[in-house]
Specification:
Elements: H1 3-15, H2 21-33, H3 37-53, H4 57-67, H5 72-84, H6 87-95, H7 117-129, H8 152-158, H9 160-166
Length: 167
Amino acid sequence: MTKDKFWELIQRSLDGSSGEIDEQADVLESELMDLSPEEIVSFGEHVEACLQESYSNDLWGAAYIIAGGCSDDGFEYFRRWLVSRGREWFERAVKNPDDLADYPQNLSDSDIEFEEFAYIAPKAYEAKVGKPFPYGKTAPDTLTGEEWEEEEEVFSKRWPKLFSKYW
């Protein structure tokens, strides 16, 4: 599966839902069921590549500000949510996490977590093939970028738009 096809599937699932995460998950699973098992695995690999690309201190700080705190698991679910928002928002946020302040709806901690996104490709694969999903790489264990301190002054300087909107 090409990267473009991956993002097309994400966008179709987003466009085919009313914006509700559960509905988007159902639409995406249905889209994946129309693919070959190899394409479903490739989709999962693209998700993992996005998780690796977005494993940064800058994005974790952004999630922390929006949610008022962010655990390890919360940061994974946030990154899965970010992938589910489509290519434009994913790439924009990876490049400059402070741009999430411009996201078209106000966000809260419950809005920016999409744990179920981790299970969509495996569910589709297992339903189609009758075997467990062949998991590959997982997200790296070393964050990229400069670390930050949990201090208002740090947040206000490093993520000024997010700090202004959500802190």
